[in-house]
Amino acid sequence: MARPPSLQGRERPFRVRAQDAEDLAVVSAYLQDAVLPVAEIAYSPAEERFVLVAARFRWEKAVRGKVAAEGGEPDERVHCGVRFEAVTAVRARGVDPKKDRGRMLNLLQIAWADGHVDLICADEVTIRLDVRRLACHVEDLGEPWPTVFRPTHED
C-alpha cells in the first residue's frame, strides 16, 4: 500500500478497510506500536462489533524522513479508530478489560488465522476476536501531534 497522498502540504489521514489476510498485514504494520488504553476498547455483542481507539505511531512518516535530532521533522502519533464487524466473541489473555481500565497496552501485531483475529500486545497480552468473516475498518481521527518517543525493538 502506498503512503497517504499529500493534500496541499499535509497528508491525508490513514483510512483503509481490511477484508483478507493481506489487507490485515498492511493494517498491522501501520498500527505496530500503537498505544492502546484498555478504557478505549469496547465490544457490542448485539451489534457484533469490536472497536478501539489507539494512539498510532506514524511509521509511514518516520521511515521516509530524518529524525528530529538530524534536523528532520519530529515523529508523530495520531488517534486512530479501529472497528471489526461480524465479531461473535472476545477473549483476553493477560489483561482483564473490566478491572484493568486504566492500563495502557502496546500493540505489536494484528494477526488473522482460521476465524479469529489476535491483537497481540507487549507483556504477553492477547485479545482474541472470534469472527464470522474478516471485516476491519481503520481511520485516523483528528490531527497528529509530535512525539520524541520513537518505538524500538530488540532484534
Automatic annotation (TrEMBL):
It holds the Pfam family DUF2948. It comes from the Bacteria. InterPro entries: DUF2948 (IPR021335). This is DUF2948 family protein.
